[in-house]
Specification:
This protein is an alpha+beta fold. The chain has 2 helices and 7 strands; from the N terminus they run ααβββββββ. The chain has helices at residues 2-44, 48-51, and strands spanning 56-58, 65-69, 73-81, 92-95, 101-104, 107-121, 126-139. The strands form 2 sheets. Strands 1, 2, 3, 6 and 7 form a 5-stranded antiparallel beta sheet that branches. It has a two-stranded antiparallel ribbon with strand order 4-5. A hairpin with a 4-residue loop joins β6 (107-121) and β7.
C-alpha cells in the first residue's frame, strides 16, 4: 500500500513538472512573438524601409530577446494614377470601412510587401518567425517600380 501511494505521489510530481515546462515554453514563445511583432511595427512605421529596403537588427531587450527584421520583400506593385487611363476615376483610391474616403494620387505604385521578423531568446531557446503584410502607396519619385 505504501509503495502504491509513493508511486502515485511521484507520478503526480513528474506530471506537474512537465506541465510547468510546457506552460513556460508557451510563455517564452508568446514573449518572442510579441517582441517580433513590436519590431515589425517599428520598421513599418516609416516608409524609408520600403524606398530603400535593408535588414534591421534590434538589440536584446530586458528579457534577452533579440529581433532581426529582414529586408522587406515587395511581392507586387501596381501602377496607379497618371493620365493614360480611360478610367474617369484614375488616380483615386477608395478606402473601405465605416466611411468611404477618396484619396487622389497623381502617379505612383500601390505596392504589397512581406516583412519578416525573427525573434530569439538564447537563454530559453525560444525562436519564432513572424510575417506581416503591408500595403503602401509609393510615389514615382521613389525609384520606380519597387518590385523586381
Amino acid at each position: 500500500m505504501l509503495v502504491l501511494l509513493t508511486m502515485m505521489v511521484v507520478s503526480a510530481l513528474l506530471l506537474s513538472n512537465t506541465n510547468s515546462k510546457a506552460v513556460g515554453n508557451m510563455q517564452y514563445r508568446a514573449e518572442a512573438t510579441a517582441a517580433a511583432q513590436s519590431a515589425i511595427e517599428t520598421v513599418i512605421s516609416s516608409s524609408d524601409k520600403f524606398t530603400t529596403p535593408a535588414p534591421t537588427v534590434i538589440a536584446s531587450d530586458a528579457r534577452g530577446i533579440s529581433v532581426t527584421v529582414a529586408k522587406p520583400e515587395c511581392t507586387k506593385a501596381v501602377p496607379i494614377g497618371g493620365d493614360d487611363s480611360a478610367d474617369p476615376n484614375a488616380g483615386t483610391l477608395q478606402q473601405s470601412g465605416t466611411t468611404t474616403v477618396a484619396t487622389t494620387v497623381a502617379s505612383g505604385y500601390l505596392s504589397y510587401w512581406d516583412v519578416k521578423a525573427t525573434a530569439e531568446n538564447l537563454a530559453t531557446g525560444a525562436k519564432v518567425e513572424v510575417h506581416q503584410g503591408v500595403k503602401l502607396i509609393l510615389p514615382v519619385g521613389a525609384g520606380g517600380n519597387p518590385c523586381p
